[in-house]
Amino acid sequence: MADVELEIAVAFLDKDRGFAYGMKLPWPYLKGDRDFYINLASARKDPSKKNAYITGRLTWEACTEHDKRNPHLYRVVTSTTLKSEGVPYLQKVLPDLDAAIDYVTKPPISDQIEKVFIMGGGRNYEICIDDPRLKRIWVTRVFGDFKANVFFPKFEHKFKRVSCPTLDESMQEDNGVKYQFELWERFTN
Q1: pTM of the prediction?
Q2: Which residues contact 69 (CB under 8 A, 6 or more apart)?
Q3: Pairwise CA distance, residues 157 & 164, whole Å
């Protein structure tokens, strides 16, 4: 991959950017958000390639088996305790985000990869916000009063909200919870 561009996909609460409570989402299941997240992470121009899907261990463990076996994703988990041997659907475990990004963006793995998504958890998000290779943040902004104890870092000072012709930015609702999709791109100098 010549010029590495990282993307984040995250859903968080409008009031405080909370995105987890324990190992679960703070809000009820949002089918529209799940569909958006899976379609975004799976979309490729070259059907012979996969998208790298980098998560932390807790995010990986919280994923359903259905999500883990998505054939369009090359899954890498950042962890110092999890071992990848014998774990179904997991391609590699590496100790930190830098090692994971390095692994998927250099041959021979990079030859198989079209895009690189950072999909959690909190520590990976904290590190990635300051990485100049992070170009886009796909946000599902969830409206409502829900408890959270894990929060997405402040990013608005480095990114601007942009419109995207393929993104439905209208207010959505599932299970009585309102949410809205947004795209943010890093400021360019």
Answers
A1: 0.94
A2: 88, 89
A3: 20
